[in-house]
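Reopening: SapC protein still failing for me.
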Amino acid sequence: METTQPAGGISGNVLFYSSPEPLNREQHAKLALVHKDKPYSFALNGTAVPLAVTEFAPAALSYPVIFAGDDRVPLAVMGLNTGENLFIQADGAFEAGAYIPAYIRRYPFVLANDESQDRLIVCIDRGSDLLAEGGQTPLFDDKGEPTEYTQNCIKFCDDFEVERRRTDSFVQLLKDNDLFELKKAVFTPMDQNGQPGEPQTVAEYFGVSEEKLNALPADKIKELQTSGALAQIYAHLVSLIGWDRLIALATLRQQQQVANGALN
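Support: Ran it again with your exact input. Result attached.
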């Protein structure tokens, strides 16, 4: 991937990236990564984060994995309210034991479209507080060449793009087999006496219909199994149990905020 030439025009808005710039040895020669024990503050408002299909299984242990929009983009749901991430603390700490999506791990690097030359180029978020001239791990060495750290980050972005395309193919397969349906995540609150109240819809999203899946002909099921898609479908379906955990986390955080308000 190109890292040194300025782009004619970078297109697209990318979640978390406030000031993306093409990585350039002249402009960014003195930039370095700032080491932080809790570096995830940039994702505090990431309610839902894009996932690659190969991440479904590990992500399913932590989050509901859903599909959104006309493109049926796979997302890891990390909060119930817009601008809320229940797995990241205000100090930038990530919930212990929770899977960290690759979309978050690649930050502050990203691939972006260079419209003038119809290609993808490596960019960094110049607005990130993880990059500074006084940082610990340089992006370029004394000869102006990308350091091992930068090379690894570029490879990570390249691999991420490969997985993104694989994910597009997986989603198209689900579309071709007409497996999507609109689903709802429902929460039933308890009153002061411990009795269930009126069920409340907390989210609407697209997911795989088990009924449609089970109705597929045997040869179609075999195709899904052989391609590995069936395992990813079941990881998605199992992940939906995670709505209960998400609701419990949201309730706990709300109770903590009320308690802190009372103390103040």
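The chain has one domain: 10-263. If you still see a failure, please send the error message rather than a screenshot.
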